[in-house]
Amino acid sequence: MSNQGVLVTYSSSREFLATDHWKQVWAALLCQFPLRTLVWRGPGRSSQSTQTIQDLNVRIAPLESVKQEHTSQVPQTLLEKPLLNLYFVVCEDNETYKNTIKKQIRDWHTIISQRKYQEWLIVHIVRPEGRAAQQRMFQMKTSVLDKIKADFNLDKKDRCVQLVWASDFENPAAWAEFITKLKEGILAAFDSAFTQREAEMKRSEGQIQMPGWNFCTFFILKESLAISLEGINLFEDALEQYNELEAAFFKVVRDRNLSWFGSLIDPDPEDDSAPLLSTTRKPYRDLILGNTISIFDFRIYLLARQCILLSKLGRVAEICRRSEKFLTNFGRRLRELEDTLPEFFIESWIYSSALSVADTCDTWVSAVNLSKASQARYSALKGELMELAQQQLDIIGIRTGHLPSRPPFSIALSAPASRTTQSQRKSQTISRQELLAAISDRDALFDLYVTITNRAIEYYASAGRRKFAIKLHGNLAALDVVRDRLSSAFDTYKNLPAHYAPHGWTSLESFMRMQALSIHTSTEQAKDADWAHIVVDFLKAYVEDMGAELLMDVDDHKAYVTGLIESLRHAAAELQADMLYPDHPALSVTMAESEARLAQDQDGALLEVTVRNQLPCNLPVDEIVAVLAGHEGAQLTFSARVSSIQPGSTRLTLFCPSSTPGMFALQSSQVKMSRVVFERKEAKLAALSKTTRPKDLPALVRIPKDHHAVDVRLRPPKRIELGTPAYMTVSLQTGRNDISVATLRLVSPSGVQFHCQEAAIDEGGDNATLEAADDAIILRDVGKRQIVTVAVPHSDASSYHTLRVNVSIEYTTVTEPNLSRKLNIARFVATSLPITTNVEDFFRGTRLFSLFTLSTTSHQHVRIRSAELKPSRQDADSVSVVSCQSQKPDIVTVTPAQSGQFLFQLDTVRGKARDPMKLHITYRMLREEVESFINAAVAEIVADDPSLLPHRELLIDRLVEALSKSVDWIELYGVTGELVVPGNLSENSELASAFARLKEILGKPRPLNSSFDEWRDIIIPVDIPQMHILAAAQLRIFANPFSQQPSGQALPLFAGQPISAVVTVTTSFHWAPSEDAEMAQYLLRYDIQDMTGDWLVSGPKRGDFSAEDGSTFSSPVTLIALHHGELSLPKVMVNALPLPGKQRMRTSVIPSCETYQLHGAEKVMVLPRGGRTTYVVDMGREAIPA
Predict the structure, then answer these.
(1) DUF7077 domain spans which residues (predicted)?
(2) Does residue 1010 sit in helix, strand or coil?
(3) How far apart are CA 780 and CA 976, in angstroms?
(4) Which of 527, 656, 988, 1064 has CB 3.0 to 4.6 Å from 571, enough for a Cys bridge?
């Protein structure tokens, strides 16, 4: 059945076959094989469904050497007989062909034509014609070829081809036509033979229900097709034939018609150790034809033929898969007759077959180039074969008593099959030598077990199936227990669960831990951290619905678990460090209520939780902890100390000494047993999405505000002076607490640094003392219901509008000195000025008018009581400041829509040094004013009714909250001082009267300057402006060009009439900088405004002049009004020219100059021009007739 290829015969005249020319043709012909790329459509296939034969071996032999035998009753392969017969002709002229060659071809053709399913081909070789034609060797002579075709191509099929034998006979192109005809002839013959054989096979298959039909004969017939397809390298088609035979066999088995076979198995002496995939060990085909083959041998032969074809297809992994499946399934079938077989025959056969398949596949795979994925799959399947062999060692070991009958060894044992008859076991023994040694020698079995298991582990590891390899490590650990190598077994059992856990092999993981505990107990080792890990993980497996399976060998489960937990508690107390176990299923902590309670008599909150214990016994613990996470990373830790937790649900109350108000989510929970900590972390809020299931949402808890707890407030300072170090005020409110020591730490995420070592108490705290540290503020001895304000300098924060400050306070009280409370809160402080200042300066001779416009920088209203501009102490005698507002309200309210203006007049002495002045603004925010008003009102009713003192903060917060929700009260309060609180505040019946009284007090009219709270001050440095030249320009109209003084009365002015005018410019150096006081004169240029729509200017419209302090320059001009009406006079612009001979940074120095128009508000009335004009109009006369 080896792949020998197709058979082709050749024939020719004896004379030609004896020549050297034939030897050359023969040698060249052999070089054309094997044939490449043959396309076979096959019978019943469409043109789109074809098979490509990549390589086809051809055996060429003389016709005389092939004997034509009579048709045999035994179906043979289609390739045993020739498929094509060749006849080589060498003839150059027609006469020779007619007289000699034609008869030779006719005789050959007569013999060939009698053979069925064979094709023939006549090859005409053109020989050289002599030395004169050396350059044209073997030129074609069509006359002889035409005669051959005419005589023998009787069925219109061209079976003649000409071979031109030239000097380059080794060129493939010279053989192309011949090779094409050769392929066509071979495929045509094979196709016809295959069609005939396939028809016979189908006819036999159709007679399956008829008497006399024989499966074995059908098998041989169909196998002949498979062998023939294999012979032409169509391995896939050949495999399909064997697969169909296998399906037909299974159908026969289902029909229970096995009369064509012998017994199920008739073992020969070496059947248990023979190679599984060998087809030559027995005469399988003869046994099949004789209907004496056993089902055992038949299945082996069929599997071997399939695997051989798979090896030629390069599918070695499938060979391993089919073999492993066959050994498993057929081995289970053999168990039914186990008593009739030699002892351990089945185990020896499976063991030997698994090893032989792996070795055979290794031989076949050397010729195949496997991809990385295919190589991994192949290694994994070999690992399964080795594991199958190892399982046979398990069975042998248990039955010989070398291995105990318990997992993992007993897993391979199958349930005993039911047998209806008792059979006598054969006396022969197995032939596998290493198994014979293992049966008699315990150590030999152990060594063989380790070798096979390690081989399987190696295959699994190379395939990347790590968890399978780890499982086998557990088998080796179990073997170490049997061999009394407990130390090695314990290490293995201890380490394996960590490898099982990622793969979800809970049962194996639990089994390993159980084994580790058993070994640890039997060896009486110290119960250290490793042992504690094993116990906790064992308890995890116990509560996950595996308790009964794990403790099958234990009578009292509860007592066993109780003993483990008690031992765990003693071991945990001896540990040096905490051991954290996340998400242990035995314990869970959940919220019992959605709102926490305040402790009332102390700072802190109480939280109701439910602890669930899944273990069957009490769990001794020390502490229960629940951690809540709030906004911006705020955390609260609730805890309670308990002695034990009963099985089932237990409700507990946890306490947190800090009570930050707000909404919190359960972040994690802990149950502490000495050094062993069971922790469970809940889902992170940041990981939540729309697809999150409701059961995965975190538990939320609301913590109410404790108005009597410690609190910290941050505010801007009451006095802000620009140019001095910045600071803010920190107010500590003690509430109900008598604080012995409080440590405050301020941290700004913006990077602003606080200089705590320079902090000082601003107000409050009669007996309080301050200890300044580098990074903290420490206050001592602060009594109940006191407010201590500390001024804390900080670095520049002017670039931030609002500064966030994270405040951390740690404090202890006099009543609980051993309890340290911590509070982390975020506060926001406005660091920018609440108002902005814009100033406009107006120079008028020796006077300066400065207009300050104050605007708010936020949406809040600012109340301004006063704004004063004060000179420095050094300039008190030389600078005089007068406010120009004759009447002003007591309080100016600056809103986002309305600013406030303040005008000041300055008189200075020329030449005196002018230091910056300071603008003092006294203000307070409307919100602060209202809050102070509310505090005063609450203080008033608390003084009348001291029972309201515990509710003081609640009353204030409720009022502020109500006012924050509406803006309707602001307008009325700004006018009358009445504060009308919107909404209903009487929900609490106990405080209803208090809220009613507060509304009455707040709703009374009162002066706007009432002192509810202290005012704040802003001091802004203001520089005195400087100007080198101040020019007063004026354009005056005269009665005529010769007048020296302007007319005292209004002159009639007409459009188009020339009007005499004089430009005057009066200059002053009063506001010049002191360093330029020595300048006596400047060169100026005036320029009359060009108003071409109203005026025409005649005369020196532009000119330069030299100006001195107090001097006046004048120049006459003539104006002409272009239209009548009330017109403004043109403006006169004055600019300074560069100083001659002075430069700065390579540019000319131009002194500063400002001009104001003395006539800027004047207008003149221009009348339309009047007069009389006489026109003479010729009315015309009648024409005089001629």
Answers:
(1) 708-815
(2) coil
(3) 44
(4) 527
Strand order in the sheet with 787-793: 711-715, 727-733, 787-793, 760-763
Task: Tell which residue, 898, 904, 910, 884, has the closest CA to residue 841.
Answer: 904
Query: Structure pTM?
Result: 0.57
Q: What are phi and psi of 562, to 5 degrees?
A: -60, -40
pLDDT at position 127, please? 62
Structure tokens at 406: 């318990």
Amino acid at site 1021: P
What residues in the chain have per-residue pLDDT under 50?
Answer: 2, 130-141, 417-422, 1186
**Is the C-alpha dihedral spanning 1070, 1071, 1075, 1081 positive or negative?**
negative
Does the CA dihedral 393-395-400-406 come out positive or negative?
positive
Residue 1040's φ and ψ, nearest 5 degrees, are -150, 170
Q: Residue 329: what pLDDT?
A: 92
| Beta strand pairing call for 1016-1022 and 719-721 | parallel
Residues 6+ apart with CB under 8 A from 855: 835, 836, 838, 894, 899
Name the strands in the sheet holding 847-856, side by side, starting at the edge strand that comes first in the sequence: 835-844, 847-856, 900-908, 879-883
Name the DSSP letter for residue 128.
P
**CA-derived radius of gyration, the chain:** 58
- What are the E-state strand segments in 875-1001? 879-883, 892-894, 900-908, 917-925
Report yes or no: 1086 and 1065 within 8 Å, Cβ to Cβ.
yes
Secondary structure class of 715 (helix, strand, coil): strand
CA torsion through residues 495, 501, 503, 506, sign: positive
pLDDT tens digits for range 38-94: 888 866 555 556 888 888 899 999 988 887 655 555 667 888 889 999 999 988 788
What is the full DSSP assignment across 218-265? HHHHHHHHHHHHHHTT-HHHHHHHHHHHHHHHHHHHHTT--TTS--S-
Rounded to 5°, angle at Cα 272 from 271 and 273: 95
Per the listing, tokens 């299945």 go with 299
pLDDT value of position 1047: 58
- For 98-121, the DSSP string reads IIIIHHHHHHHHHHHHTSTT-EEE
Cα–Cα distances (Å) from 432 to 259, 398, 438, 447, 456, in that order, read 32, 18, 10, 16, 20
318-347 per-position pLDDT tens digit: 999 999 999 999 999 898 888 888 999 999
Q: Contact 742/809 with Cβ under 8 angstroms?
A: yes
